[in-house]
Amino acid sequence: MKKLFPLLIPIFIILFGCQSKIDKKSKIAINVSFSNKISTENLDGRLLLMLSNNNEKEPRFQIGGLNSQLIYGMNIDKLAPGKKVTFNEDVFGFPIESLASISRGEYYVQALLNVYETFNLSTGHTVKLPVDHGEGQKWNKSPGNLYSQPFKITITENGIENIDIVLDQVIPEIKEPKDTEWIKHIKIKSEKLSKFWGRDMYLGAHILLPKGFKEHPEAKYPLMIFHGHFPADFGGFRTTPPDKDLEPVYSERFGVDGYNIKQQQEAYDFYKRWNDPDFPRFLIIEIQHPTSYYDDSYAVNSASQGPYGDAITYELIPYIEKQFRGQGKGWSRFLYGGSTGGWEALAVQVKYPDEYNGCFAACPDPIDFSNYCLTNIYEDKNAYYYDSEHKKVEVPSHRDYLGNITSTLKQDNHLELVLGDNSRSGKQWDIWEATYSPQNEDGYPERIWDKYTGDINPDVANYWKENYDLKYILERDWDKLGDKLKGKIHIYCGDMDNYYLNNAVYSMEEFLESTTDPYYDGEVDYGDRAEHCWNGDQDNPNYISRLRYNTMYVPKIMKRIAESAPKGADLTSWRYK
Fold first, then answer.
1. Helix 470-485 to helix 502-514 angle, to the nearest 10 degrees?
2. What confidence score (pLDDT) does residue 253 get?
C-alpha cells in the first residue's frame, strides 16, 4: 500500500479537475426586464430566475421536492418597464447557491415576477406583500404575476453572458365557482380585517346544503367546519357517477393507479350518503381566508396577519348561520381537518372554547413547540444541525413510512429564502412565523431563527410559547379551560408522519392522559406506519380515508350533541328523513 499510495494522488487531482463547472474568472450575467406592453407602472415584488435541465414542464412548475430545479431570487422596488435587472453570482439561489457553481450544459431558463402591493397596517407599519387573487397564494400561478416563456441556453466554461429575458406574459384571472343546487358560495367584507390591513378585506366560504333545505324552512342546522388549505370550491362532492371515459392517473404519493377514478367514486358515494334517509342534516363549510403570507391564515389572531380568529368566529360564522339557517350556538358547531386544518381545528377549539363543541384534529401541524417537527425551539440553539462537537449532521424535514429522507430543514428554509425574504415565500415554515411571531420593527414577522444559518432566537421562541404552543397553553390554563374542553378534543396521527408531527402528538397525549382535574375525556389515536395525513380510520388506507372527512366524524359528533346539548336545544327540526 505504501508503494501504491503516491500513485493515487495524481489520479485524484485529474478526477477533481474534470468537474464541469463554470470557470471562476468567467462572467455571470442574466438580464431581466418586463415589457411596457403588459404594464406601464413601476412595480415592486420578488423577481425569480429559474433554470431547468429538462423541458417536461415550465421551470416555474419544477421548483421544490427531491428533484427541484434551480431558482434564484431578489427583491425589486419600483422597477420601471424596460429597465434591466441583472442576476449575477452574488444572487442567492437554491439548491445551488450561486449561478457561478452551476455545471456547464444546456438549460431552459424562465423568469417570473411575484408582484407585491403596499399595505398601511393599523400597527403603523408599511409593508409590501403579494396579494392572493383566488389561487391560494401560489407564486407560480397567481393572476397578475408577470413571466417569460422558457427558452434554451447553453452555459459554457466562459460563464453566462448576454442573456436577456423579457417578462411579456401575465397569468390570467381565475373564474370564481358558480352556485349549484347543493353548493353555495359567499364572500363578505370583514370589518375587523379591513381595519387591520388598511384596505377592504374579505372572507369567503363554500357551503354544502343538506338534503331538503328548501323543503324544510323550519329546520335549523348544526354546522361542521372543515378547516384546511385554500379551497377553490367545495371538494369531494359530485352528483353523478365517475366519468366513463376518464383515463386512469397514477398517484405517485400513494402508489395507486387510477386514483382520479377513486376520487370521483368517493365524491359520488358521499353525495349518496348525504341523501340517505338516516344521515343527519348538517351544514358543512370550507373557508377561504388566504393572506399575503399563505393560502390561509391559520384561523387565529396574529400580530402580522391580523384578527383572523375573531373575524371567522364572530363575523363569518354568524353570517353563514343567519343566511343558511344554522343553529347559531356553540353546542352546534364542530371543527375538523388535517395537517394545517388539524392544527386549526384544535387551535380554534382551544382559543374559543365556548364557541365550538368539539374538534377532530388529524395529523396536526406541531401542537407542542418542544417538538416543532424535529426541533425543540426552547432548548436547541440551531434548527438546521444537531448539536455535536465534531460532526455536522443536518436535521431532516421529510421522510417516508420506512424513514427514507428526502429533504432537510435547512433545504426547505433556503428555498423559502429564495422565494421571498421577510417570511414572504408563501411556504410552510414562513407561514408558521407569520402566524406565531411578533412583528419586527419593519412590520414583518420576527424570525424564529436566522433563515440562512438556522440560529434560534430564544426571545421569539418564548413569544411563540406563550401565545401559540397549544400543549403549553393547555398546561398553563387547564384550571380555566379543562371544564370547557372536556369531551371536545380528538387527535389522530400516523406514527410515521412524513413531517414528524407525531412527536408533538405523543407529548400532547401524555399531558392529556395524565391530567385528571378534570380528565379531558377525548381521544388520541395513531395509525401504525401511517404517513401524513392519517385521520383516525383504522380500517381503510390513507388514500381512501382522506376523502371521507365529511362523514367519518359524524357518529362522534352526534354522540357529542346527545351528551352535551343544553336543555331546550333544538335537536329535532334538522332530523327529518
1. 40
2. 86
Q: Which residues pair with 117 in a beta bridge?
A: 129
- Is residue 156 within 8 Å of residue 315, measured between CB atoms? no
* C-alpha cell belonging to residue 348: 380554534
Q: Say yes or no to pLDDT of 7 above 50.
A: no
Give CA–CA dist 308/287, Å, rounded: 12
In 10 A of CB 214, how many CB atoms? Answer: 7
pLDDT digits (tens, 9 = 90+) for 153-174: 999 888 887 899 999 999 999 9
Asked if 229 and 296 count as a contact pair (C-beta separation under 8 A), the reply is: yes
CA distance 456 to 468: 17
Q: What sign for the dihedral angle of Cα 319, 324, 329, 333?
A: negative
What residue has cell string 411579456? 168
Helix (H, G, I), strand (E, B), or coil: what is residue 92? coil
Condensed to tens digits (0 to 9), the pLDDT of residues 355-385 reads 999 999 999 999 999 999 999 999 999 999 9
Distance CA 193, CA 196 (A): 5
Residue 16 pLDDT > 50: no
CB neighbour class for 555 (10 Å; exposed up to 12, middle 13-18, buried from 19):
exposed
Sign of dihedral through CA atoms 15, 18, 22, 26? positive
User: What secondary structure does DSSP assign to 475-538, as a single string?
Assistant: HHHHHHHHHHHTTTEEEEEETT-TT-THHHHHHHHHHHHH-BTTB---EEEEETT--TT--S-S
Task: Assign 3-class secondary structure to 357-412.
Answer: CCEEEECCCCCCHHHECCECCCCCCECCECCCCCCCCECEEEECCCCCEEEEHHHH
The pTM (predicted TM-score) of the whole model is 0.93
The residues with which 188 forms a beta bridge, in sequence order, are: 203
In order of start, what are the domains of the chain with their CATH numbers? Answer: 28-170 (2.60.40), 183-236+269-368+474-564 (3.40.50.1820), 374-466 (no CATH)
- Rounded CA-CA distance 372/393 in Å is 18
Under 8 Å between Cβ of 297 and 289: yes
